[in-house]
Amino acid sequence: MPHALEAKYGLTAQELLDAIDKRFRLKVALEGAVAEVHFERKLKVASREGWLAAYEGHDTDGMHDFTVQTLSGATIRVEVKTIRNGSKVQVELQKTRAAKGDPSSRYYDRTHFDLVAVCMGRATGDWSEFRYGLVRELPVHKLYAHKLQVMHAIPDDGNLGPRWFSRFQDAIDAYTA
Fold first, then answer.
1. Are 163 and 156 in contact (CB under 8 A)?
2. 128 CB-near residues (< 8 Å, 6+ apart)
3. What is the C-alpha to C-alpha distance for residues 175 and 75, in angstroms, rounded to an integer?
4. From the centroid of its chain, how far is CA 98?
5. C-alpha angle 38-54-63 in degrees, rounded to nearest 5
6. Mean pLDDT for each 10-residue chunk of the chain (177 residues)?
7. DSSP per-residue codes, 38-107
8. Name one GO molecular function term (predicted).
9. CA gap 124, 22 in Å, rounded
10. What is the pLDDT of residue 161?
11. What pLDDT score was predicted for residue 56?
12. Helix axes 24-49, 13-21, angle to 10 degrees
């Protein structure tokens, strides 16, 4: 039985995959979706194992990707990103476009989300591997103190710059501490 997208577009699954593979921007968008699916898998496991009370995914423009409820009752807003292509392991925290008349609107406000979950798949080939950073520990934009800096290095050594965590549970523990 064909997938709904095959029926909708009149293409085979192979043709759809080939179309994605040939288009850079479409692949970038797909990688973002892949990262979100892998992160949601982690949330499902955390909920099933009993160290996360609940979570909700959001697919709404202008909203963070997930809201997580901890066992202690804390609510954590999570934004999922992928690392940038290139030799440096870093994440870019800015929106695709700025609003007309407000160049600072392209940058994330420090209150937009609490935690960033960065998929490491482009660097490691493992799309289920993440690093987690607390927004309150990330540097601010040099021109707009209420906005986040755009580029953030993710060091291998946790002693460099803001703390980055390789385990989601460690990031939650640090957030609620």
1. no
2. 38, 41, 42, 121
3. 10
4. 19
5. 65
6. 93 94 91 97 95 94 94 96 86 81 88 96 94 95 94 74 85 92
7. HHHHHHHHHHHHTS--EEEE---TTS-SEEEE-TTS-EEEEEEEEBPSSSS-EEE-B-S-PBTTBGGGGB
8. nucleic acid binding
9. 22
10. 58
11. 97
12. 110
The amino acid present at 44, given as its one-letter code, is K
How deeply is 119 buried, as exposed, middle or buried, from its count of CB atoms within 10 A (0-12, 13-18, 19+)?
Answer: buried
Spatial contact of 81 and 35, defined as CB atoms under 8 Å apart: yes
* C-alpha dist (Å) from residue 83 to 51, 71, 89: 27, 29, 7
What tokens were used for 6?
């095959």
The structural domain count of the chain equals 1
3-state SS class at 171: helix
Which amino acid is located at 15 in the chain?
Answer: E
Question: Hey, what amino acid is at 120?
Answer: M
Query: Per the structure block, which two tokens stand in for 48?
Result: 């099933």
pLDDT, residue 90, reads 93
Tokens 């990688």 appear where? 31
Domain membership of residue 121 as a residue range = 4-176
- Reading the block at residue 149, the tokens are 């800096």
DSSP string, 120-154: -HHHHS-TT-EEEEEGGGSPBPSS-TTBB-SEEE-
The C-alpha atoms of residue 87 and residue 91 are separated, in whole angstroms, by: 12
